[in-house]
Structures
1.
Amino acid sequence: MSSSEPPASADDDGPQDESVMTVVVAFVANILIAVAKSVAAAITGSASMLAEAAHSWADTGNEVFLLIAQRRAAKPADPTHPLGHGREVYVWSLFAAIGLFAVGAGVSITHGISELANPEPATDFGIAYAVLGVSALLEGASFFQASRQARRAAADRNRDLFEHVLATSDPTVRAVFFEDGAALVGLAIAFAGIGLHQVTGSATPDAIGSILVGVLLGVVAIVLIDRNRRFLVGQSADSELQDAALRDILRLTEVARVTELRLEYVGAGLLFVTGAVDLVGNPAEDEASHVLASVERRISANPHIVGALLSLSEPEDAALVPRGRS
């Protein structure tokens, strides 16, 4: 397998520096938005604005978790972690998703219900609209960065954007994409709730807006929690990546056929390969062990492969045949 030719045509969303940049852009945008919304919520008394402030503070905290995830996952392999620390990215991304659920969704829904029970009039609607407008611009910039990175990777894999964001092994891109997308929808909900509050004089639409923002954040958090859980417990590569890896291994002159092949994610864009192969010429046991070790090293030379472990095929095992496009 050529080390210059990723078996995944690369499932990752580009260089890790770009993923870090995506998170940094989101962090800067969210902290500015969180401060502005908090001030606006204190001045206006709007339930929807308070929900949006809680949302933005939760997102800001999440970006900190995602930056920690990137840093810890980049640590090299060591004797106690022979496959590296790539799965750390899923652990910290899971913490971020739980934080979004607990802080963002919990505060928004709780405050909305409280506002329904004890409504309070809002004031200074102009400030609220101005903050929502500026927030939309900042969230849009962050969403554009995440979308641009994901769209390029989706095109490489012949996927649509949403399908790729759900499937990608890079949880930081998925988190920023969903959080910023939810933020833009939440801003529209808040704008409608505040607008109806101003027009009707009733705090009910504003309170309902707060609850809807919370429900939206809860749904996004559950999706992110589930995706990180899947990768933590062992997510296998899709059939396209399996076929690409199979074709690359079959190109090796030492390999006559492959009867078993498994690719498991151990980090963002990082795979561990196990399988069984039949060697050309049926070499003796000593020679076969050397040939297998050489094949494993050549597979592991690929930057997307953290390790490979192969055994010899049983004679009666059927050979695997690549499917899909070549």
2.
Amino acid sequence: MSLPATGNDASPSAPEDESTLTVLLAFGANLAIALAKSVAAALTGSASMVAEATHSWADTGNEVLLLIANRRSRRRPDPAHPLGYGREAYVWSMFAALALFALGAGVSITHGIQELFHAEPATDFGVAYAVLGISFVLEAVSFNQAFRQVRAEAADVDRDLLEHALKTSDPTVRAVFAEDAAALIGLVIAFAGVLLHQLTGSPVPDAIGSIAVGVLLGVIAVVLIDRNRRFLVGEEAAPQLQTAGLNTLLALPEVDRVTMLRMEYLGPRQVYLVASVDLTGDLAEHTVADILRSLETRLEAHRHILKAVVTLSTRDEPSLTP
């Protein structure tokens, strides 16, 4: 496996376009769901519905932050930022995860606890069921788009779907996948809370449902925060990408062997490559310098390599093998 030799230009590529589509679809679905849940929460007084409405508004705001992340991270390098703006994706995605934790989880848990001690009777359960059903369908449509993208990307890099969802360098896809999955689970929890409230006449199951939704969102938010933190401080490229980079170097006719290779993510699907190589033949110093610069230029023509630095190996360094 070697890196695809597509040009390193300013036009967005297919994966980035699909990421934008995934986020836009999630935004539209969550906005419609948030409005419907808010109306249902006001009519029914259900604690679970209030938690779900808060959850959906948090998700809607998060999609705006993810769209900003997707757009700003695509800007090309300039003199002030020679390694580009790719890591902005993790900054804005971190904001989205923090918002999910503070608004989605915090408000849902707080409201659920308040309902345990100061419960109000709920009414119009049919409205709640109708809104939950419609919301489930819309969330499923959004989740299906994220699921399809993650599954296709996982197949390309030979990973399990859940492993790729966790480890992908694209934080927008990971966030939509995780948030939509949490939303579907949250809707089932909310349905159970509303149903038990109606059957028992007690608001306790409804309040517990609100707390459960909040805990679920808190767990998802902590996972997303941790993944963005790791990419911000510097995450080594996946083994599959490292192998592809090594094969690409060895395929160059001027390279006899590779003794050191480091690849670090600079943004979604963008890496910084540093390598030590042994060139073929015994060349003059000025010729070696020209060849090394030529190798860097050719490596940077690959869409996934934003910056490449190639140096010479020493004789005693062991060779790397794919």
